[in-house]
């Protein structure tokens, strides 16, 4: 079963990290990603640009509304993700808890809905 | 000779949880389907047993019928054909010995119900429903929520177990720690529901207490180094050792100070005291430990008047800090009344009443009535007893309060 592990962190705090800290975190992520590739859990994973680079699109009454943002009211913003293959929620939680940012931010573990083709 | 209905009722009380637990495993974690087939099996028994006689091993019969219904269900959904063979291996006979040796899925079910991905309210409700066979109405009453709210909570929890694929397993050692607290809290509530049933004709539901004790013993073997598990098990054993003395011949409640202590189960009490010793040895200092220590002081007094109330009042004061709550505060007040005199207890009870936190809890006016009676303030005591009677829910507690009121009026 696939799970999306969404990594939330305080963007403002991340901006103030020293160069050495950034290098350390990058190293930790490299090690983590190599490990879950090795164990066969990794499907994909990316780091996102900050929410300042984001654009939001809505269609209302058939018209497209494009706006800047989202303007995050929350303390933590989505900053990256991993899509993993895991046996069950416990295994997914185990992987999520090894993501370096779990120690400073939070990781949402969300099952990916599976569609099964009807058989006859 | 018991009639069919009482045999069936007993099977429902004693075996429902175990049968459901097994069916959930073989139905791949589908709680709803498992409950349905087990309920169908009980319905079938209700029809067949009066006609054909009660089977030699009722629980085995129910398991077999529920299993067959589950097989039918799976056959209808062709995708699951592969699992049918595995399912058919479960409870193939109604033999008593085989029923005893079936794998015990209850602990697995308990850990699934108490998965931290579920809300704490849902965890306990699910456990009471699936493990103990309590109805949605009974659980709703215990939690003071409407049956509709509770039913919704249960449906959401079961859906999450399915969609997020919460595994039906006892967790790996490294995940046990964050799960233990919920499991212990659930066992505590199951035991409490049995020890002081929130509704119904019976004061005690010994079957629930015994199920909680059985699971506590399993949890203890799983977590031998956990001080809180040992404390909770000590607490349950010490309370349960008094069960025979708590209910009078007429089914009425007998309070601790009037219990015939020779009826206490000495072996169970000693086991409880030993559990508490080992919990303290592991450095236990939590709420279960304090409660077990209070129960131990009661258990060690040869007569009611020998009870070390000063120490019990001190332990309750500690408990008020650990688990602040109005019921604990009321127990503290009662202990202070015993240690230092009824007037000290009454002022604590009055404070509690003024806080309005126990507005519809019958034991508050009942405790007040008792203290007023001991202070010789008869008229106030009578009106407090009447207020308690207006709120009480179980029949034996009602009879107890009525008897106390009659005694007082006759003085």
Automatic annotation (TrEMBL), chain A:
<dbReference type="InterPro" id="IPR005545">
    <property type="entry name" value="YCII"/>
</dbReference>
<feature type="domain" description="YCII-related">
    <location>
        <begin position="1"/>
        <end position="116"/>
    </location>
</feature>
<dbReference type="Pfam" id="PF03795">
    <property type="entry name" value="YCII"/>
</dbReference>
<comment type="similarity">
    <text>Belongs to the YciI family.</text>
</comment>
<dbReference type="InterPro" id="IPR011008">
    <property type="entry name" value="Dimeric_a/b-barrel"/>
</dbReference>
<protein>
    <recommendedName>
        <fullName>YCII-related domain-containing protein</fullName>
    </recommendedName>
</protein>
Automatic annotation (TrEMBL), chain B:
<dbReference type="InterPro" id="IPR013249">
    <property type="entry name" value="RNA_pol_sigma70_r4_t2"/>
</dbReference>
<dbReference type="InterPro" id="IPR014284">
    <property type="entry name" value="RNA_pol_sigma-70_dom"/>
</dbReference>
<dbReference type="InterPro" id="IPR007627">
    <property type="entry name" value="RNA_pol_sigma70_r2"/>
</dbReference>
<dbReference type="Pfam" id="PF04542">
    <property type="entry name" value="Sigma70_r2"/>
</dbReference>
<dbReference type="InterPro" id="IPR046531">
    <property type="entry name" value="DUF6596"/>
</dbReference>
<dbReference type="Pfam" id="PF08281">
    <property type="entry name" value="Sigma70_r4_2"/>
</dbReference>
<dbReference type="Pfam" id="PF20239">
    <property type="entry name" value="DUF6596"/>
</dbReference>
<feature type="domain" description="RNA polymerase sigma-70 region 2">
    <location>
        <begin position="14"/>
        <end position="79"/>
    </location>
</feature>
<feature type="domain" description="DUF6596">
    <location>
        <begin position="179"/>
        <end position="279"/>
    </location>
</feature>
<dbReference type="InterPro" id="IPR013325">
    <property type="entry name" value="RNA_pol_sigma_r2"/>
</dbReference>
<protein>
    <submittedName>
        <fullName>RNA polymerase subunit sigma-24</fullName>
    </submittedName>
</protein>
<feature type="domain" description="RNA polymerase sigma factor 70 region 4 type 2">
    <location>
        <begin position="110"/>
        <end position="160"/>
    </location>
</feature>
<dbReference type="InterPro" id="IPR013324">
    <property type="entry name" value="RNA_pol_sigma_r3/r4-like"/>
</dbReference>
<dbReference type="GO" id="GO:0003677">
    <property type="term" value="F:DNA binding"/>
</dbReference>
<dbReference type="InterPro" id="IPR036388">
    <property type="entry name" value="WH-like_DNA-bd_sf"/>
</dbReference>
<dbReference type="GO" id="GO:0016987">
    <property type="term" value="F:sigma factor activity"/>
</dbReference>
<dbReference type="GO" id="GO:0006352">
    <property type="term" value="P:DNA-templated transcription initiation"/>
</dbReference>
